[in-house]
Amino acid sequence: MSSDPVVLVHATKQLLSDAAAARLITALVDAQNARGEAHVVLTGGTMGSAILASVAASAARDAVDWTRLHVWWGDERFLPDGDADRNETQNREALLDAVPLDPAKVHAMPGPDGPDGDDVAAAATRYAAELAAAAGDGAPSPTFDVLLLGVGPDAHVASLFPGHPDQLTAGVAAAPVHDSPKPPPTRVTLTFEALARAERTWFIVAGADKAHAVKVSVAGAAPAESSAAQVKGRRETLWLLDADAASELS
Ligand SMILES: O=C1O[C@H](COP(=O)(O)O)[C@@H](O)[C@H](O)[C@H]1O
Prior knowledge:
The protein is an alpha/beta fold. It is built from six helices and nine strands.
């Protein structure tokens, strides 16, 4: 069960960010209203933190009950806690440190200063176990209410790089990535199987350097050309773009 991609274009990167933030607040409020708690998966990169900064600046920010939100990550650069290049650090600066989250519900991916040291495979296994524990019903992870994904110019999402040997890891929810083509070389990522467990999947993409990746991904390219094309939400798959990122779409 998955949904067909829908494209929505905003004129500027700032409008894209603000509109996506409004959409995110509403989706989290609705999920909490329906089920008590909500689960969101965050992303790194340009738009991953831009949308969170827009949430932070929104007058509706505290319509979300932050204490009832589980925060997960789609991927993480395998760097120590607080490193400026960690997605978590950037997301914290943009929003997470400014809202009253329950620390027990903030599920950061371990780095080399974590319980497994520099064993990135063990760190990924640990994260998969945390996902399964949160599901609590034998599923490999909770159902994610909203999955946010940035997209690289090479059409990667999370740390799943097209054509990379670690791209197609199967049978686990989280996997190590070695020799990433984008620095840093070592990462932890959710797998395609885990990314498929979202109700709403939103790609948030700005900039002309992403236009080709957007075009081939929306068209449904094969894994060797696009990781983004392999990910769909169960209920909704939205491509939220600025005009530059949409410039190669017909
Ligand atoms: O390395 C990463 O890159 C992508 C996209 O980043 P961008 O700066 O090109 O927007 C990001 O979504 C991913 O989480 C991150 O680890």
